[in-house]
Amino acid sequence: MSTQRTTGAAEEPAGANGDGTAAREPVRNGRSEAAGTAVGRTAAEQETADRAAAVVAELAGRLADPEAVVAVATAEGNLDRPPGRGPLHPWGGVTLAEGHPGVALLFAELAQDDPRHRTHAHAHLAAAARSLSAGQGAGLYTGTPALALAACAARRGPADYATMLDRLDTQVDTRVRQLLTAEDERLTARRAGVSMDVYDLILGLAGIGRYLLLRADRHRTALTDTLTYLVRLTDPVRHLEHTVPGWWVPDAPGLGQESHFPRGHFNLGLAHGICGPLALFALAEEAGVSVPGQREAATRIVDWLLSRQAEDLSWPAVVAWDDEIAGARPGPAHGRTAWCYGTPGVAHAVYLAGRAWDRGDWRLTAADALAASLDGPQALVDCGLCHGWSGLLQIACRMALDSGDERLLARLPRLAEQVLDAYDPELPLGYRYADTPPGLWAPHRAGFLEGTAGIALSLHTYASGGTPRTPWDAALLLS
């Protein structure tokens, strides 16, 4: 089916060699001299890192050709069958989750050490640009912002993708204004209750705000307006004769959960909850961007999160309205222990806040919670970034390398081995997505959030022994 294009094909990066690649940088021990600091490793740990690097190379080979990737993702029988909807392939075209922009993030990162991968990043960006239709500007993970973030990650200089980004940025500005205008009307009218899609990372202003921060020179006003709105979102609201946090969501967190959340919920998840704005506040603060009330809003969120932490240091995914009103401290969390929901994502947001405002107590609380979570039962059934082992690995790598916490550093090899042990070279994309319950989800997924591209990125972080050199995990609000 044809679509109306708004950006045209992605232009070739400027300053490249004739084949679209840049001149190779000096590399020492498999890492560019510009790379982050590597962690000292034992022989066994280095063997695991070398194994991870080999798997990343294998996966990159399977993802390099955009047409081949689409062929696997849309093969007969590789179908999602979500309740209430017809079967569909797990490929979205212009999305970070399951599309070309997310795969481009992998090759943008790999190109830092092997510039030949710039050709592959460009091929996926061009495929995404050809598929982008008019008005397809939603949140960070869909449409215009998704392509813009991937293009930013692939740049090696200000001239790279400049024309395309100028066009995309105009549409991003329009989307931000739409969301902010609607929310200003709601807040001015004192109507309690916010939609997750308005403020979260995936579709809302926390995610778009992270892109605006990457392009703060172009989007300074939109960025500060977004931060100002998110500060307002933390103001308490009155509903049903109770005063509650302003991020109260009147709906259930997911389809089929309405009976458990008849009066809505308060979402803690980094993907869909208040930890998204918290992480954005902290990252903006560290980048020198602050608005009135920003620190106070972050403190308000952290104080609430700490009041909802269980005695075993875990955090729940959500808090129901009735539980919030009762004020009881929750019991141990038994749900997801992942990036999207659960203790790891919450811990990382709290850690970022502690780092931004020099709160050692917050940083220690976050590290303690993550360490306890890594030693507890893991409700993980696949290797994806969203709710699988590679997301847990990326969070642990980030916090361990930044904090130097020996407990976290010691747990990295085991997390990497969990991801590596699931690799199956006989599978078309190396990994199989969790099919639970059987027949519900497509097994072969190429994308960033739940597929092979994201798994490869996390393994690459571990293999390198340093932090990412492109802003790919800004898409997870980890940086």
Q: Could you explain the architecture of this structure?
A:
This protein has helices spanning 43-63, 66-73, 100-110, 117-131, 144-154, 162-188, 196-199, 205-214, 216-233, 275-286, 294-307, 321-326, 343-356, 360-375, 389-403, 406-421, 452-464; strands at residues 27-28, 31-32, 237-239, 242-244, 265-267, 318-320. It is mostly helical and 479 residues long. The strands form three sheets. The chain has a two-stranded antiparallel ribbon. A two-stranded antiparallel ribbon has the order 3-4. Strand 3 (237-239) and strand 4 form a beta hairpin. Helix 1 (43-63) runs antiparallel to helix 17, helix 10 (275-286) runs parallel beside helix 13 and helix 15 runs parallel beside helix 17. The longest helix is centred in the middle third of the chain and has 27 residues, at 162-188.
Tags for this model:
17 helices, globular, two-stranded antiparallel sheet, mainly alpha, two-stranded antiparallel ribbon, disordered N terminus, 479 residues
